[in-house]
Design brief:
It is built from 16 helices and seven strands. The protein has 494 residues and is an alpha/beta fold. Helix 2 links the parallel strand 1 and strand 2.
């Protein structure tokens, strides 16, 4: 390997490491915000829901598409929401193309006969996908406030009473709640998804909101002020994460968002890796698309402070961290050989400490989010250590798949909104097999993921002849991560 190529590899590797380090510092700052947050929900102005004059009119929107396994559960649950019927409207925004439409219609008719104001809204096409459905429903919505739930969410009956009251403050445009997980313990896959989401909904959402930085409506389990949606330009379907897009447009127009960590909205996690893949692809590509769309507006905005701009940019770059991690992973083996071939470049390898420091920072940050939900006992800490490294390994295994999504997003390549199949999986005895919405084709990425598993096995072997075991733990996690993703994808087919 020539010295010129070696310098190029070192430059790319170091740049990716430094970006990851800045990301971890941003997370650390959010942890400080989270632990020191002084804003309390008790201090916020609230509607007095005991006074009929103060009870606002709410429309609940339920965007669904081919949800045969969960739509009955969804409608039964939403029908139990405790709120004056004269002030509540439910819109079932049904873009389904299968037989579930008939059963949904029957269920809606039955609820309508009980006096519930529930409507079955169908479109002739799926233009704009979920964003298009929400936008069309909004044109006829009666409510001044719009609550949105995806098909796999099960809000408690008093959910509206806990959330809508904060709109007493006329500057509040969105109230977002924390996601819960009804099937957290189903498998290793669900546990690590819950782990990652818990970190987002405690550390990131609460940490940003505590200091007035931009947060995002998470697509579900929250309420919008109708006026805010319209003022921000309404729903747009030009990205795969329309929720993040509208959130930033609204906050750039000075609307405030309120995050309620103490209000949990249970939901079902994907139990099959193909479903997790499609969800991860959409979220990560959508994040990159929104970076393209909104980052300059954030940087050039004159109405937000510098620190909020920094966190906004890092937020929009979240998904791009997978690309940085993938670059570091792939180049780590060439770096190992460069280190042992050019002794005079040894000082450069001090930059690898950035990754170790970044990992330690994330380990600390995620522990605080984990213990806030699971508890801080010694046994919980031991469980946390195992779960953190399992999560870290599997996240590394997803880095190829997610990096391809990020690259497509940054390049502006358009793709269809691929919905995450739902399963109605609540406990270990439930089975996902036979779900007709599952993709039957194996991902072409699997071949590359298998090759990468072998590649990092070679990286582990390389430590022996080179007598350099510094990167051995990293290569071991990469080997296990790509192996997990490959073999799970191989055997978990419908």
């Amino acid at each position: 390997m020539s010295l010129t190529i070696s310098y190029l590899i070192i430059a790319i590797y170091s740049t990716a490491l430094i970006l990851i380090f800045f990301y971890s510092l941003a997370q650390l700052n959010l942890l400080v915000n989270y632990l020191g947050q002084k804003r309390r929900n008790a201090e916020a102005p609230r509607f007095n829901l005991l006074d009929p004059k103060e009870i606002p009119t709410v429309t609940i929107q339920l965007p669904i598409y081919n949800e045969e396994y969960v739509v009955e559960r969804l409608l039964d649950n939403i029908a139990k929401i405790e709120y004056p019927k004269s002030k509540l409207e439910i819109q079932v925004l049904d873009d389904s193309t299968d037989d579930s439409v008939l059963e949904t219609a029957k269920r809606i008719d039955a609820f309508s006969e009980t006096g519930l104001d529930i409507k079955h809204i169908r479109r002739t096409n799926r233009e704009g996908f979920k964003a298009g459905a929400l936008k069309e429903g909004l044109t006829v919505a009666k409510g001044d406030f719009i609550a949105i739930f995806d098909a796999d969410f099960l809000p408690d009956s008093d959910w509206l009473k806990k959330t809508v009251l904060y709109f007493k403050d006329e500057e509040i445009g969105v109230v977002q709640t924390r996601w819960g997980h009804i099937n957290r313990e189903y498998s290793t896959l669900t546990r690590i998804q819950a782990f990652a989401l818990d970190a987002h909904f405690t550390l990131e959402q609460a940490g940003r909101n505590a200091k007035g930085h931009f947060i995002n409506f998470n697509g579900t389990a929250g309420i919008w002020r109708k006026e805010c949606i319209l003022d921000a330009g309404n729903w747009e379907g030009d990205t795969l994460t329309e929720d993040l897009d509208l959130s930033y447009r609204a906050q750039l127009k000075n609307w405030k968002f309120k995050y309620l960590e103490d209000v949990e909205t249970p939901a079902e996690l994907p139990v099959v890796i193909s479903a997790a893949r499609s969800q991860q692809f959409r979220w990560n590509k959508g994040g990159a698309e929104n970076f393209r769309k909104s980052v300059w507006s954030v940087i050039s905005a004159k109405n937000i402070p510098l620190k909020t701009k920094f966190h906004g940019v890092m937020h929009l770059l979240n998904s791009s961290m997978f690309l940085c991690v993938f670059i570091v992973a792939v180049l780590s083996i060439p770096m190992l050989y460069i280190k042992n071939s050019f002794g005079h470049l040894g000082w450069i390898f001090e930059v690898t400490s950035f990754f170790i420091v970044s990992t330690i920072i994330l380990f600390i940050c995620y522990w605080f989010t984990y213990k806030s939900i699971q508890g801080s006992s010694f046994d919980n800490f031991v469980d946390y250590i195992k779960l953190f490294f399992t999560f870290f390994s599997v996240a590394l295994g997803f880095s190829l798949h997610n990096s391809m999504a990020v690259i497509e997003g940054h390049m502006g390549k358009r793709s269809e909104f691929v919905r995450t199949p739902k399963f109605n999986i609540n406990n270990l005895s439930d089975s996902w097999k036979g779900n007709k919405y599952l993709a039957t084709k194996m991902s072409p990425n699997m071949i590359i993921e298998f090759a990468l598993m072998v590649y990092f096995l070679f990286g582990m072997y390389s430590a022996i002849p080179l007598n350099d075991f510094g990167l051995f733990p990293f290569h071991l996690m990469l080997f296990l991560g790509f192996g997990f993703v490959f073999f799970k994808s191989l055997i978990a087919k419908a």
